[in-house]
Specification:
Helix content: 25-40%
Radius of gyration: 13 Å
CATH class: Alpha Beta
Oligomer: single chain
Protein name: Thioredoxin domain-containing protein
Number of strands: 6
Pfam families: Thioredoxin (PF00085)
InterPro entries: Thioredoxin-like_sf (IPR036249), Thioredoxin_CS (IPR017937), Thioredoxin_domain (IPR013766), Thioredoxin_H-type-like (IPR050620)
Length: 135
């Protein structure tokens, strides 16, 4: 599978698009594995904070898939903030750490540090910031 994130990080749930990968975060271990592996990398991590009830999140989903396919050099991680309540407060803590209080929220991380964000359903701004930080 080449540089497929799911094979590198033992990430069991991922949605592949034509040229990219969205990693669906399903556990604390999975999140920690992905996040820790990205700390030593200059690769862009885009964390997509979402929820099943969020209308703007649902509206952005097809655009996000399209964007992911355009930027295979970035890693996209989707965090459903409500779903992770089932796993305890850990993922809610992740959302809190990155101040993902308004959804959708896209947080850009490099080497373990937040470098930028997009809040709301703003696909053009999302593309602009990926372009800005992908190198």
């Amino acid at each position: 599978m080449g540089s497929n994130v799911s094979s590198v990080h033992d990430v069991p749930s991922s949605a592949e698009t034509k040229n990219g990968l969205v990693v669906e975060m399903e556990s604390r271990r999975q999140w920690r594995s992905l996040f820790d592996s990205m700390k030593g990398s200059n690769k862009l991590l885009v964390i997509d904070f979402t929820a099943a009830w969020c209308g703007p999140c649902k509206a952005m989903e097809p655009r996000v898939k399209e964007i992911v396919s355009r930027y295979p050099e970035a890693v996209f991680a989707r965090v459903d903030v409500d779903r992770f309540m089932l796993f305890g407060m850990y993922m809610q803590d992740v959302a809190g750490t990155y101040r993902a209080n308004t959804l959708p929220a896209f947080v850009f991380v490099k080497r373990g540090e937040e470098i930028d964000r997009v809040v709301g359903a703003k696909p053009d701004e999302l593309v602009y910031k990926i372009e800005k930080h992908r190198v």
